[in-house]
Amino acid sequence: MSLDKPPPPPAAPPNPWAERIPKTGQPLIASSTWPHRLLHVKSMTSYVKENHNIYNKEKEPVYNVLSYTWGRYQDETETPLLIHGITWPVPSIKRDYFSAAAFKKAIELAAKGFRRCCDWVWVDIGCIPQDHAGETAEDANIRAQEIGRQVEIFGRAIESFVWLSSLKTTDLVKNQGRLITLDDLLVYLNHPVRSSEAAECLLSNLHKDTQVFVQSMRMFLQHPWMSSLWTLQEMVLRPESWILFDDGLLSLGFDENGVEKFWSLQRVKHDTVCLRQILTGREPFNNIIVPGFDIKEEYVQNIWECLKDLSALQVYKGLDALSIRFPHTAYSLAQNRSVMKPIDRIYGIVQTYGISCKAKPPGDDDISRLHSLEDDFGIKLVAKAPALSQLFIHSTGPEYPRRSWLITQKCKVGDHFWTSFTSEWENENLFKTLEICEQAGDQKVLCLRFVGHGWELDEITQYPIFQPSKPGSPEKYRGLMLDNHISKSVLGSVVDYFDNENKMRQAVRQLYDCYCHERTGKSNEIRVALLASSCRSDLPVVHYVALVLAPSLMSEKKSSNIRWGKNGMTCGSGLWIKDEPISVVWERIGLMRWTEMYHEPNLKPHYNLPTPQNFECFIY
Questions:
Q1: Which of 52, 264, 421, 448 is least surrounded by CB atoms within 10 angstroms?
Q2: Could you tell me the pTM of the whole model?
């Protein structure tokens, strides 16, 4: 047998972009605003800011922020917390959820901080006007303004605290003396065993600690803070928040430098990601399940099922939400959270985009007012971040969405590929125009006007753009992605990612059979409309995303009714469309994404694809 070492792998090809200076995009929200009010904790007085950043004669005071939930636990018979200097009543809360004294203590603990003690705290009931009878229009407008500024308010705070009212640290620790964490379970999985007896003992202890770990995590996940929509956006805004109990922070012991560690959202979110990675395969048990060892398989199965159920609950509760730089994940997860009023499904999350919506949306009932707010949000998002407004997949099931271009909470966006289109990367819009157009007549019709370039769908899918996803790594996928109601109605089942290229091309043929059968001209086309690109400036790899558009199956009916009245249609650019029918009504049916590698410095974009053609349409 030869003992020669295998030859080294071939060297990577030279990077033709290595000398380029890295660039990043503009963040969705610029942190330049100070809160309208801050609470001075020692005096329990709320002060309105003077000029830009002065509170009670103190300029730019450092402050901490406290997140908690209370809306579902109001009780007018209880004594409220006393706060001076405000023009609204502080809500009274059921005593078994938290008392005024417990609330004040939590505020004081938040002010005390962990790394920095502050005299000031931002807390909603002391800093945002609360809705009440006799409220002034000014207070209502300030409330809408401050809700839209949550990103800046939370981002400017020195430290953030999440208060799990009515819970004590001992409730999670119980008889263990300390909190059992995922790290404790990993110690078992990384511990080699050399006999059946050792494997049996290790599995028994692992099974016991898994039960304790899951029980503690479920207690945390089932707290009302984890079911409120308003706190979801706060969890995304400050993912490193310290978790505060009625009796203070929960210690995790000391690090190698003797510094005490405490439980935080960052630790919980990190464990969520690690657990999901562990569950992508059963390799972690390989050191225990050794051929020849006589062990109880039910131990392994029970541990596995417990951890799988916990991981699913963690995802459902939003602990794997992406960062604030890609706020669609929080918007999507909002459908799993509780609200007092349907319109709060918009008000409670749009601040992650730095957008403020109408304070009083039109409508005769809750649903019509919610739809009005969804439209208002969608219009403002297209104007602020047009490409971002389309980076989603509809998950409405068999029901068609009201507007194919409009993102709603029923969307799929948890794929980490989309983080490439955040401000950390260099992004470029590849369309000429992407704007909202609105009918000027009595009947409100909103559509998205696209002007740019694109290909025929059956043309571009003949080229090597496909790449399958991998288990646990959907971000690896490249190719056609259909909105769920489209794949359900056309293909017969929901398909998020095609398993192979042949299945994708077969789906393309089915789409043409459905949308273009017995049609001519533009209504016989399915288009891939270039939307945006993303890259690291000094790496020769560029990601692309495009809209997939088809002539609507309702084209004839819709176009015969859409003539825009005497005044025509107005668009975001101020362009007026003449009073004439539109021959083809287009609808969005999904997205196409692919990646191009540039091995030479002067290669043009899409060098391996046919030349894109000019394309213009209205999307409904």
A1: 52
A2: 0.83
